[in-house]
Amino acid sequence: MPAPATGGLSVLRATPADAHDCAKLHAELFDPAWDARGFASLLGHPAAVAFVARQAAAADTVAFILGQVAADEAEILGLGVRADWRRQGLATRLIAALIGAATEAGARALFLEVAAGNTAALALYRRLRFEETGRRPAYYVTAKAAPLDAVTFALAL
Predict the structure, then answer these.
(1) Which residues are catalytic?
(2) Which residue has the higher pLDDT, 52 or 55?
């Protein structure tokens, strides 16, 4: 199937009203998945910094990023892009939006972790100049696969 055109795509600040769409997409992409209640709680927290990418014509959420800012540090808690929207720069746009909001909120560093087996995400973060800071052994546990290490990254803002 050909990749969708990026025209008509909006990156918008996420609110608790986006919890259902984010949870639905998260369930397509991750195991275990976060539910809508968890997303609503996170999105409603004062420290939350989150964005969704929505296809305007269909009002269809195709990607999200969820982070938080505490004092002068920010963290990406989750980032997901629907499979048919990957490799079009959407994750980069979402990360840039989060970096802008986090910087505006006073953050001077951005942290994240990613599964060691997620080669596309590892390449993305390295390309965006995140620096690998360590590993958390057997951090990601699912019912369907052996535990995976988390690779931790930081980016000075």
Answers:
(1) 113, 125
(2) 52
